[in-house]
Amino acid sequence: MKAFEQNAGQKVPVDSDVPALSCVTLTDGWFWKQRDANGHLKAVTTVVEEWLDPLNRRHCNLILNAPPTREGRLAPNVVSRLEEIGKAWKHPGSMAKLSEHVVITTRNLAKGKPIHASSYPDTVGPDEANDGDFRSSWYLDEGQTSGWLEVDLGKQESFNVVSLVEPVGRWDDYPQSRIRSYRFQHWNGANWITLTGGETPAPTTILRIPRVSSQKVRLLLESSKEMPHIAEIGLYDEPA
């Protein structure tokens, strides 16, 4: 389950389907303060229409903090507001089932291994894409709209999960994916065989595939109008 600190400005993505919780306060801040007895409380419409209903549709529980007084009780104004919220909220019924999510529990087989690319600028090598640091990234040389990364694992390795991380949102001019399509392939000793792929990926894309054994794996990219970056490529052998 993923936690979002709503009071600190963290927002649940509109298209999120990961079980989550979002924390916010009914009062103006955390913990009870004497002024809260007659102070500002979050409006019913804000809690129900702007938070509770839309968050529930994103499979997210709203954790609404109502702090107790120094005597360990809820103040009358807090009790009254919670009652109003309870009357305004209507249970929508059962939610749709969540899609399956792949959990990574093993080491990245691609991390630190020899890696090559179809092209790259003078100061940005392909090793930026498997150094274990999401703050660094590889990208194609100027003017290129398609290309590839190839990882040499050094020996035959079995894996059943592949991943790619695109630094969407890291910079102001990178608000959405720049990848039009992608494919993961492995070398079978004679040919490159496609494992999986798709169109525009999520910022962090994790895909389970039938377990395969290979020494070389590559990621092929087709870009949109702007130059895509790859912050990390991953290969994992997860338990079945």
- pLDDT < 50 stretches: none
Taken as a percent bin, the fraction of beta residues is: 35-45%
CATH homologous superfamily identity of the largest domain: Galactose-binding domain-like
Largest sheet: 6 strands, antiparallel
Share in helix: 10-25%
Euclidean distance between termini CA atoms: 21 Å
CATH class wording of the largest domain: Mainly Beta
CATH architecture of the largest domain: Sandwich
Count the strands? 11
Number of domains: 2
**Assembly of the depicted chains:** single chain
Gyration radius (Cα, Å) is 24 Å
Mean pLDDT equals 92
CATH topology of the largest domain: Jelly Rolls
N-to-C series of helices and strands: EEHEHEEEEEEEE
Number of DSSP helical runs: 2
Kindly describe this structure.
The structure is a single chain. With 240 residues, the chain is mainly β. The chain folds into 2 domains: 2-88, no CATH class; 115-236, Galactose-binding domain-like (Jelly Rolls, Sandwich), CATH 2.60.120.260. The chain has 2 helices and 11 strands. The strands form 3 sheets. Strands 4, 6, 7, 8, 9 and 11 form a 6-stranded antiparallel sheet that branches. The longest helix has 14 residues, at 44-57. The protein is elongated. 23% of the residues are buried.
